[in-house]
Design brief:
The complex is a heterodimer of chains A (139) and B (141). Chain A is mainly beta. Chain A contains no helices and eleven strands. Chain B has two helices and nine strands. The chains are: A mainly beta (139), B alpha+beta (141). Strand 9 of chain A pairs antiparallel with strand 1 of chain B.
């Protein structure tokens, strides 16, 4: 299968988490998720936040393009959209991990979300809330 | 100033049991484990609506049930609610935003599947048709 199709096996999302960093152990390739969070405190806006989206998938087989939308829920706006190159997954019984590291500029408080699509089909999301306040008490 | 997201790195790796660094225990290592591989990506600033008119649903987000193909949904907004409508089954999900509406629809589909599955031996003709149609989209994992 060379082209992604909406009728291919849909990956099943085993997990999707938002964290500060994912550390990959040299040699074993084991991942450690550091600083899992679901809210961000900020005293001033705009604020820059480095964050990593960790995704674990299974049941994918064939050609896939993954897309990640960064969404401001309250303004109902997709701020940024990222798409991977076309990739092939051979065995649906093997789990795969996507690690997406980014720096986000947050303009205002409110609910934000990362939405994950496989071949244009929505498969899951992870949200976080931006709260005005002391960053020392935050995430 | 517009909000933005700067991608620094996107990687993918195959997961595997890979539990030791000790070379004397290398037989415990599985060849399945894979170091993360950088992926080429493209990114764009969109500013488009986060509530599209149409959406493909690709996952039920359920531990036992999975979709065997993506489901076309029609998305509408009514006052402060978003409605996710699956025309093939006339099922609806409601929520304050798109993800909430989709989660509500997923829950409806799971409950419908589980209800019909439990009673499949005593369904009337209409519900038997519905059960057969549902099985075209949803399977147990």
């Amino acid at each position: 299968m060379d082209q992604p199709t909406e009728y291919g096996p849909m990956p099943v999302l085993l997990g999707m988490l938002l964290c500060d960093h994912v550390i990959v152990e040299q040699g074993t390739s084991k991942k450690s998720l550091i600083g899992i969070f679901d809210r961000v405190f900020a005293n001033v806006f705009p604020t820059f936040q480095q964050m990593t989206v960790y995704v674990r998938l299974i049941d994918a087989q064939g050609a896939y393009k993954f897309k990640l939308d960064f969404v401001d829920i309250e303004r109902d706006t997709v701020i940024r959209s990222m798409e991977t190159e076309l990739m092939h997954i051979a065995d649906r019984f093997e789990a795969y991990e996507l690690i997406i590291r980014s720096t986000v500029q947050l303009q205002r408080a409110g609910l934000h979300e990362f939405r994950l699509f496989a071949n244009e089909a929505f498969i899951g999301s992870i949200s976080f809330r931006v709260i005005p306040g002391d960053i020392a008490s935050g995430r | 100033m517009a909000e933005s997201l700067t991608l620094e790195e996107v990687t993918i790796s195959r997961v595997g049991e890979h539990r030791t660094l000790d070379p004397h225990e290398s037989q415990l290592l599985s060849p399945a484990a894979q170091a993360p591989v950088p992926l080429d990506t493209s990114a764009e600033v969109t500013g488009r609506s986060a509530t599209p008119d149409r959406l493909l649903l690709g996952s039920l987000n359920h531990p036992r049930l999975r979709l065997i193909r993506s489901l076309p949904l029609i998305i509408t907004r009514e006052e402060s609610y978003v409605i996710a409508h699956m025309p093939e089954l006339e099922e609806f999900g409601y929520g304050l935003h798109l993800t909430a509406a989709i989660q509500d629809l997923r829950q409806s589909l799971v409950e419908l599947y589980q209800g019909l599955e439990a009673d499949q031996d005593r369904l009337g003709p209409d519900l038997t048709d519905l059960w057969q149609m549902l099985q075209q989209f949803i399977r147990a994992r």
